[in-house]
């Protein structure tokens, strides 16, 4: 029986849930793929634990047995995992701790599943080239659109197609806030507070609302789906924070749905990306996306146009996206 050793870096709200969910699914993964998916290491930013015979849920939730300093690369060196799941924080200046973790993985022949975005958004071309050279797979549903399977649709379902345009509402916080402001007449502050109360928005939602999150996701999607690694700093973006009363009235009077969308368009020189605010008429498919629901439109030569509306915006949805990536990875091994 094959043992697949997994290390998880980053045990905040998402990481801790991923660890417990992975342990709960262990028997199911054995039945489906015939391998023992063993969580052998977890860590936060300052401490961690390694156990060759596999951790249990109590080892994750009760950190009394964790060792100070056993975190990040030292944890990976001690555990020598086959798969690294990174759920740590993103840093769009340094690449965050996920940069060192992903570098370790692809340089040591380990596969990676990324929830944090910054390492790929800033250094994706180099990291994926190393991964290919060393036979590693990198999955990043949690870093691209969570429950909305954008990369899966583009990379697998439309494999071989010439995708000419991708337009997507990728951030549940922005979608919810705009919906509240247009449909309910809430102020920006009221809409943000409601999103936070429902667990949709972060305590500081500026990264989602000002277009940076959508831009980072666009870079990751273009890189993973098309091999087109764009410069994050070069992606022009609009912001929910700059929406005017006039814009809100215009969308409301026209009966339109407002959305902050990321757009990828293929031109003669490759793909261009931008983040923009748009209003969609009542008959547009995106109007079915209410609240924090996400949406995707794809145009592909020879295939036609596709629309996908759905995908929750919640910690549970991100965890589900990681587990999906685990299954895709195991199916390919």
UniProtKB/TrEMBL annotation:
Entry keywords, A to Z: Amino-acid biosynthesis, Methionine biosynthesis, NADP, Oxidoreductase, Threonine biosynthesis
EC number(s) stated in the UniProt entry for this protein: 1.1.1.3
Pfam families xref list: Homoserine_dh (PF00742), NAD_binding_3 (PF03447)
All residue ranges annotated as the Aspartate/homoserine dehydrogenase NAD-binding domain in the record: 10-139
Keyword Nuclease (UniProt): no
Keyword Transcription in annotation: no
Sequence ranges assigned to domain Homoserine dehydrogenase catalytic in this UniProt record: 149-326
The protein's annotated pathway: Amino-acid biosynthesis; L-methionine biosynthesis via de novo pathway; L-homoserine from L-aspartate: step 3/3; Amino-acid biosynthesis; L-threonine biosynthesis; L-threonine from L-aspartate: step 3/5
Catalyzed reactions per annotation: L-homoserine + NADP(+) = L-aspartate 4-semialdehyde + NADPH + H(+)
Family affiliation: Belongs to the homoserine dehydrogenase family.
Protein's recorded name: Homoserine dehydrogenase
Organism (species): Leucobacter albus
């Amino acid at each position: 029986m094959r043992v697949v050793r997994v290390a998880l870096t980053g045990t905040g709200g998402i990481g801790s849930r991923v660890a417990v969910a992975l342990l709960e699914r262990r028997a199911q993964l054995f039945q489906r793929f015939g391998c023992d998916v063993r969580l052998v290491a977890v860590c936060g930013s300052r401490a961690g634990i390694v156990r060759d015979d596999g951790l249990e849920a109590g080892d994750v939730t009760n950190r009394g047995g964790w060792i100070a300093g056993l975190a990040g690369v030292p944890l990976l060196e001690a555990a020598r995992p086959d798969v690294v799941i990174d759920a740590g924080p993103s840093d769009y200046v340094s690449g965050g701790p996920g940069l060192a973790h992903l570098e370790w993985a692809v340089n040591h022949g380990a596969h990676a599943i990324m929830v944090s975005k910054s390492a790929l958004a800033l250094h994706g071309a180099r990291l994926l080239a190393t991964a290919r050279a060393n036979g590693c797979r990198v999955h990043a549903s949690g870093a691209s659109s969570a429950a909305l399977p954008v990369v899966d649709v583009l990379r697998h379902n439309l494999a071989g197609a010439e995708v000419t345009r991708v337009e997507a509402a990728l951030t549940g916080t922005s979608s919810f806030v705009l919906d509240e402001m247009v449909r309910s007449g809430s102020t920006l502050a009221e809409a943000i507070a409601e999103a936070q109360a429902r667990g949709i928005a972060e305590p500081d939602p500026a990264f989602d609302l000002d277009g940076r999150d959508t831009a980072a996701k666009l870079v990751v999607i273009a890189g993973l789906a098309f091999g087109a690694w764009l410069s994050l700093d070069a992606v022009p973006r609009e912001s929910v924070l700059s929406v005017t009363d006039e814009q809100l009235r215009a969308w409301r009077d026209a009966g339109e749905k407002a959305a902050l969308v990321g757009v990828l368009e293929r031109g003669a020189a490759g793909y261009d990306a931008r983040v923009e605010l748009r209003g969609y008429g009542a008959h547009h498919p995106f109007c079915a996306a209410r609240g924090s629901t996400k949406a995707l439109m794809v145009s592909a030569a020879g295939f036609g146009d596709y629309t996908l509306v759905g995908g929750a915006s919640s910690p549970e949805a991100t965890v589900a996206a990681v587990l999906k990536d685990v299954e895709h990875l195991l199916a390919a091994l």
